[in-house]
Specification:
The complex is a heterodimer of chains A (347) and B (109).
Chain A (H helix, E strand, L loop, with lengths): L2 H15 L7 H19 L6 H20 L7 H14 L4 E8 L5 E4 L3 H7 L11 E8 L11 H14 L1 H8 L7 H24 L2 H9 L12 H12 L5 H12 L15 H5 L9 H19 L5 H4 L3 H27 L3
Parallel strand pairs in A: 1-3
Antiparallel strand pairs in A: 2-3
Helix pairs in contact in A: 1-2, 1-3, 2-3, 4-6, 4-15, 6-8, 7-11, 8-10, 9-10, 13-15
Chain B lengths: L13 H11 L7 H19 L10 H12 L1 H6 L11 H16 L3
Classes of the chains: A mainly alpha (347), B mainly alpha (109).
């Protein structure tokens, strides 16, 4: 469709979305700003070049998809909550996380913020643009209440930080690879990005990222886009064991040059056994424990699977156990968020 | 996902490319902020391309991407030779730079 037609249709749909009962106020502000910029783009004289409108329409399409996801009361609040805490470690700009549920095993976390594009291309727009950057999360629908299976999002957050600050591309400036074809260069870039994202995830969820990678594809060999699973797990294990190795030093050097934090453990594994054995949520003490719920939950699942779990698990089928442990994890995170909000209220 | 990288990886140079596309389409007046962005990315990329150790917290991701591309791809380096700001970009130059950016951008979609 022509971008002008798409923009008009998207503005209508955004206006409709903003009237739905579950619309979050912070997100509503972005929807109204999008509608206003679209109105400006379509009525401006002289008109903006179609190439500007086409790129802008693509961005509005993306925003629309995720803003829509945030109106359905289906957003995985607990996962967004964990992501918000991790994002704040790396980005100083205020961010607004929005989610779309996906219908396949597709986790993603990407920047899609339209406001920088608008500021740089629609210089005749005089309205105020939102300050928060929009960050879009994709979570498989069937995992929306399975936070432990969403540990992979920390890997995606690693890609997101890499994209936002170009960490691995800096390593190609500091540690270039000479004398290889364009194709091999691209493979090497992809592999460095995957290793970085794995190490990043390990900072927050520890060995849970090994469990996630192993669960998804335990025997994957090297491909153009990904290193072999065995290689990835070896790199993560070395990092978690506190070993120094060249690849880790390369990433730490790039992060230091960019003024970003080091790759290091940012979680504390909470002792959830007593609470979970009684089928009670655990009381999360602080942010490191919040991230540590992933490692603790995976470890607890492993314990149950090996027959070393509580009495209630012995009588339940495997799917019920998985559901209950994820449910307890979800409630533990939810309670932590409610306590945090409560503590922020002036007494 | 734990599978492929998102295509945003290759969209880092989107605004840099857009400036070139607009010139290639015959636009004479670019939005001023877009012109400044083009100049800034090119200026930083040149510095990084000449001295890769010059990375600092102020360096933009776009400049890092362009610097790497300029170091690896000779055609892009040649196409940008003599360009110090957007004012130096004629329609044929824009076309040539885009031709050397396009293959890698196109492969992402």
């Amino acid at each position: 469709m022509h971008p002008r037609t798409d923009l008009a249709l998207l503005a209508e749909s955004l206006a409709h979305l903003s009237k739905t009962p579950y619309f979050n106020r912070a997100i509503e502000k972005h929807a109204y700003a999008l509608i206003d910029v679209i109105k400006h783009a379509l009525t401006s004289s002289p008109p903006y070049d179609d190439e500007i409108l086409r790129s802008f329409a693509d961005k509005v399409w993306t925003c629309h998809r995720y803003l829509q996801g945030s109106t359905t009361k289906e957003a995985p609040y607990e996962i967004e909550y964990c992501m918000r805490h991790a994002i704040s470690d790396w980005l100083t700009d205020p961010c607004l996380v929005t989610t779309a549920l996906t219908d396949k095993k597709d986790f993603h976390l990407k920047p899609g913020d339209p406001w920088d594009f608008v500021a740089k291309t629609m210089d005749r727009y005089t309205g105020q643009l939102p300050q928060e950057k929009l960050i879009f999360i994709g979570v498989p629908r069937i995992y929306k209440h399975m936070p432990l299976f969403c540990a992979a999002l920390y890997h995606e957050l690693g890609h997101f930080v890499d994209l936002a600050r170009n960490v691995t591309d800096v390593t190609f400036l500091t540690h270039p690879v000479h004398g290889v074809s364009d194709g091999v260069q691209e493979v090497l870039q992809n592999h460095r990005r995957e290793h970085f994202a794995d190490l990043f995830a390990a900072c927050y969820v520890g060995s849970a990222i090994v469990d996630s990678i192993h669960a998804i594809n335990p025997h994957a060999d090297h491909s153009n886009t990904h290193p072999a699973t065995a290689t990835r797990i070896e790199v993560i294990r070395s990092f978690l064991a506190g070993e120094d190795f060249d690849e880790l030093s390369m990433y730490q050097g790039a992060l230091q040059k960019l003024g970003l934090p080091r790759l290091e453990q940012r979680y504390a594994v909470p002792a959830i056994e007593t609470a979970f054995d009684d089928i009670r949520p655990y009381t999360v003490a602080d942010t490191p424990e919040l991230h540590g719920m992933m490692a603790a939950g995976w470890s607890y699942l492993g314990k149950v699977k090996s027959g070393d779990g509580p009495q209630w698990a012995a009588d339940a089928n495997q799917l019920d156990v998985v559901r209950i442990v994820n449910d307890l994890t979800e409630k533990s995170i939810r309670n932590a968020s409610i306590r945090s909000l409560w503590n922020e209220v002036p007494q | 996902m734990l599978a492929a990288m998102p295509s945003e990886n290759n969209r880092r140079l989107e605004l840099f490319r857009l400036a070139l596309v607009l010139i290639d389409r015959g636009n004479r007046e670019l939005p001023h902020p877009l012109s400044l962005h083009f100049d800034d990315v090119l200026h930083q990329a040149r510095i990084l391309s000449d001295d890769p150790s010059a990375v600092s917290p102020d360096v933009t991701p776009q400049a890092v991407q362009l610097a790497n591309d300029m170091r690896v791809y000779e055609g892009l380096r040649d196409a940008l030779a003599g360009v110090n700001s957007i004012g130096d970009v004629s329609q044929p130059v824009a076309h040539e730079v885009l031709r050397n950016l396009e293959p890698r951008l196109a492969s992402a979609y």
